[in-house]
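Same chain as my last thread, 89 residues:
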Amino acid sequence: MDVPQIFCRWYSVKARDLKREGRDRSLSEVRGMVAWLVLDLGVCTLGDLGKRTGQDITTLGSAAKRLQIRSKTDLKLAERMKELFEAVS
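reply #2:
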């Protein structure tokens, strides 16, 4: 299962965009979602994901944790996370 590719299609971004530096909010959310999902499903490690996205594992882990926390109060985000989880599991 190629989780980053699935997310790129879902969010309509290119895989190379995940490697772009900066704080583009939409890309940050995609990277956070990918990190959250690979951790939740155990399909790869954050180290493996970091190599594919060019991101530090600490950054990826923090992004995943921020999304989990935000999803407790943001119902749209929680629903999107649920839909994505169902789409790849």
